[in-house]
Amino acid sequence: MPEDDHNSSGEGVLSFDLTARPWIPVLRRDGSQAELSLCEVFERAHDLRRIVGDLPTQEFALLRVLLAIAHDALDGPQDIDAWADLWEDDGCFAPVGAYLQAHRGRFDLLDAKAPFFQTPGLRTGQDEVFSLNRIVADVPNGEPFFTARMPAVDQLTFAEAARWVVHAHAYDTSGIKTGVEGDTRVKGGKVYPLGVGWAGNLGGVFAEGGTLRETLLLNLVASDTSNLQIDDSDAPAWRRPPCGPGGAERAPTGVRDLYTWQTRRVRLHFDRAGVRGVVLGYGDPLAPRDRQNREPMTAWRRSRAQEKKLKKVPVYLPREHTPERSAWRGIGALVVNEASVGQGAEPADYLRPGILEWVARLVTEGVLEPGFLVRARIVGACYGTQQSVIDEIVDDHVAMAVVLLHQQDRRYAEQAVAAVCDADLAVNALGDLAANLARAAGTGSDGPRSSARDMAYGLLEAPYRAWLARLAGTDDPYPQRLLWQQQVHTIAARLGDRLMAAAGDAAWQGRTVQLARGTEWLNSALAGKWFNAALRTGLGRPDSFDLPPDADARPAPETTVKAPA
């Protein structure tokens, strides 16, 4: 490495020990913020609310590093009984301190022989050192879209650099990268796209408790979990030999390996003042296909296209997040596991995250009380332009009682999902109303339909989250569903009245429009009649205590109410 790895004044080699130096941003329970070392994070986890990274994706990446440390230091937990002992023990993370001390040498960010999450001596053929924009995700490729740092990153503190190195392995963009010496994949001085960092493939999901201690434990999956494969040889990056240039094709050994997967080769360039440059190349490739028994922090979807291409069934890919779809609207993917049933059954189209399967086991076996509240956090990066830039970052949550995850008592989960379908039905009805009013006025219908739907989802979000949080407080979820339908009907009817009032004289007078059965004189009065009929059919009357005929059946997601033909 260049001479800047050493203190030029002769005072020795620089060091930044992540086990002892503060670098992880946290939010305390009293609302104050701080930066803590690894040892301090585990010692004070009971008094911390959460990690607060520079970006939500950084928080997710740092949490996975903490989980890898906890799994390795505690050697498990091996089974649910061992986990229950940890849950009841206020000093459950006491072994972590000795563990970090034993591996302290691999947690030095600036070490010359084995720097943390880096490749010693990494260099390009021309000894180029690149801008830190390459690892700071809020300035991808020099085009800032998060404004924390503009227009470039000239220098980072060692604490900041440590966080961004972790983030780069998890979420670095794809694209053509400058080749490094010793990488056999280099062609003409370049390595062609090999995909994003491992976590960038995922629709990240984790269970968040009231404190960081609870969050770490809730996501600490036991080794005997049936749907999760963890090899005896599973180990995090710091218990493996330091990575050389290039990458190795191999299968992951378990969660400790995946949570610290070295998807990149990184080397920081620094002086006593801080980090001022970086060398970044591709590392160990890992295809996301069929990793559902290894990676628990994402939902999975069945890919018919991949099945046809590979001539095998089933093939699962991570279920990525959609930025425009709030977490509460996708609760079905979190609480319902569409597992195959019976011999010869068709494989499930979707699998819920292994982390939530684990929490489901905890409540089903009585380790957690049914009313215990968790937040299902969803975090993900949405890439654009052949995955060479990050377009958006998703960060959302939905609070729920763990009874919704109960594997035997599915009533609560079914009603929670059905309640979202009630909201979808009302939103579709409002979209149709707005479109019909526009048609009656002789204007385009797509814009008004979209605007009305967005407005409706916005008005229903807070009431649904509040309703869901109260759901576990009742012995029977069905009457709660009725109350929700009445609330949805009231909210939708009020918004419908607003749309009708805003439609104007042209919609009130109406015009002839073409329908499937022929022509019809469409005006705001007829559009309102269709709208009210759709609400009554799907939700019942707001003053009625009778459930609609299909209330006990699980409604299809995205039920669309159409005007009669």
UniProtKB/TrEMBL annotation:
One Pfam family cited in the UniProt record for this chain: CRISPR_Cse1
Composition bias type Low complexity, residue spans: 546-557
Chain positions covered by the region annotation Disordered: 543-565
Taxonomic superkingdom: Bacteria
The protein's name: CRISPR system Cascade subunit CasA
Native source species: Streptomyces murinus
